Amino acid sequence: MKKISLIVIGVLVISAFLAGCGGGNKEAESIKVGYLVHVTGDSALWGISEKNGAIIAQEEINEAGGVLGKKLDIMFYDGRGNSADSVNAVKKAVQQDKVVAMLGSNLSGPTIAVGPICASAKVPQVASFATNPRVTQDDNGNLKPWSFRLCFTDPYQGKLIADYAYDKLGKKNAAVLYDVTNDYSSGLTDFFVKRFEEKGGKVVSKLSFRTGDVDFRAQLSEIKQKNADILVLPNGYKEIALIAKQAKDLGMRDIVKISGDSGYSISLFEMAGEELDGNYYVIQHFAWDDPDVAPIKDKYEKKFNESPEVNAAMGYDMVYFIAEAIKRAGKADGEAIRNAIEESKDVKLKHASITIDPKTHDPKNKAGIILKFEGNKAVFVDKFAPQD
After folding, report:
1. CA quadruple 210, 212, 218, 222: dihedral positive or negative?
2. What is the pLDDT of residue 274?
3. CB-based contact 369:380 (threshold 8 Å)
4. DSSP code at position 67
5. Cα(146)–Cα(144) distance, rounded to whole angstroms?
């Protein structure tokens, strides 16, 4: 019996060893890339679409043979729309799961918060829609060597809004209604005002509200008295829907409105389509009627049986961008991938050709997409970039 027991124990030990070896080989067959998405919380509408777009790209890449002969394993982490949960999620990604790159997120605050974690682990970070300058630069303007982004920045977006309003729409007197407690809204306001006034425009009213406010009638009444010819709304789509409805009640329906990239959602049509129809412009990164981007929408609807937010296209392109960088790096190593990202030049994605500026880690000369609400849908009207 003793002899038999020893044989059994020996077999079990060998089996465990072989299983461990097998697990290690399986591990080596994939390249782990983290993706910080907010699929719960206030940003879930965008986060889910971005995640699903990334899933489509991952499946396509793996069906075509993967990256460097290995399966690309996109591991998703829910930041829940806030910095604290995002920090915990990214710590797990880089410390336990050992991802070699970190994609996301679409929110500036959480993306900034997790940057030091990625840098400490020597894992390059590529943001999707995080537009705050501090994603890639510190408060003193120093470059963060491990942080990059594919979207344009808030200063650049502020210039886009100001130049389009002044040069293309011919508006000279602007009013701004913004969220003083939101970094995105406040920052975009400052960048717009500075650029608009530099061009010779006049900001006749600059009024604020706080996150959670639902009544904007007092601010709108004051704006109405100032005779502004354009209303700048650097806010989220929920606030814009409420503002549009209340503006209509105050007889201000026809004033031209313009917002940044957070001011668009397919839900906005249901919430305030009529009030915005014909007089609302939004700066965006994508347009579904762009023939290069439209196939992503078709694939998404076929796979998930629902219409996507524009974030789906960024999720899709983010995965292809990092896959291309890993190929150029030649190995699944954080530092090699970081260098390849920094050297990215004319990387052909669906929505744009991306060249990373090594001095800023932002895309160079990326045009904004101008959408206008017409016939209860967002219609592509222009691709526009500041001349300087």
Report:
1. positive
2. 84
3. yes
4. B
5. 6
pLDDT tens-digit series, residues 280-317 = 999 988 888 888 899 999 999 999 999 998 899 999 99
Sheet holding 202-209, edge to edge: 202-209, 173-179, 230-233, 256-259, 280-284, 368-374, 377-384
Region for 141 from its dihedrals, namely left if φ exceeds 0, alpha if ψ lies in -120 to 50, beta otherwise: left
8 A C-beta contact, residue 233 and residue 257: yes
Nearest alpha-carbon partner for 316 in 28, 47, 55, 45: 55
Query: How many whole angstroms separate alpha carbon 72 and alpha carbon 69?
Result: 9
| Burial 259-293, CB ≥16 within 10 A → b, else e | bbbbbbbbebbebbbebbbebbbbbbbbbbebeeb
**Pick from 382, 343, 384: which is nearest to 365 by CA?**
384
- Positive or negative, the CA dihedral 270, 276, 277, 280 is negative
This model's pTM is above 0.85: no
Residue 202 CB coordination number (10 Å)? 11
Q: Strand 347-348 vs strand 353-354: parallel, antiparallel, or unpaired? A: antiparallel
- The conformation of residue 100, written as its DSSP 8-state character, comes to S
Q: What is 150-213 written as a DSSP string?
A: SSPPHHHHHHHHHHIIIIIS---EEEEEEETT-HHHHHHHHHHHHHHHHTT-EEEEEEEE-TT-
- Note whether 149 and 356 are within 8 A (CB): no
Q: What angle do CA 184, 281, 234 make, to 5 degrees?
A: 15
Query: Cβ(151)–Cβ(105) under 8 Å?
Result: no
382 token code pair: 């222009």
| pLDDT tens digits, one per residue of 321-343 | 999 999 999 999 999 999 999 99
Identify residue 336 by its one-letter amino acid code: A
What the block records as the tokens of 258 is: 């313009």
Query: How distant is the alpha carbon of residue 376 from its chain centre?
Result: 24
Identity of the residue numbered 383 = K
